[in-house]
Input
Amino acid sequence: MGEFWPVPDVLAYLAGRWHATRSVRDLTGGDEGRFEGVTVFSPLAGGGLLSRESGTFTWRGTARPAERTLRFLPGDAPGTADVRFADGRPFHGLDLATGHHVAEHPCAADLYRGEFTVRDTDHWRTVWRVGGPAKDLLLTTDYERAGPPVTRTPGP
Output
């Protein structure tokens, strides 16, 4: 089937708990950092998933707690998602029907370009390239399922 694993329903696939390991490289200065933690995708009232990531980010030898929250709402097409920041602002769409998706998000003077790949039922990866006047970063996150997949209950 190739290197990508098709996902007919993004929200059903993501539901549950994942170990997350992220490398962060500053392509201009050469600094490297690392995030290790968990990402939990839990059901939202009305449909979709709340993604809560928490762990430790180490940069330039200093470890700090880090967290992020995103909303994964049902997309326009069946099986897709509309990814939003915690405050509801749009981030990007997500369609993993082929096991691979590319998304872009302009943010002020910066451009975030993300590539999503699914390896199998328990492994997926994101690679974000962030470029702008003051940024040139590469963020690679590997996710590994931490326990059995969760059955998602459809919203009303």
The chain has a mean pLDDT of 93. The longest strand covers residues 62-74. The beta strands are 16-26, 32-43, 49-59, 62-74, 81-85, 90-94, 100-107, 110-120, 123-131, 136-145.
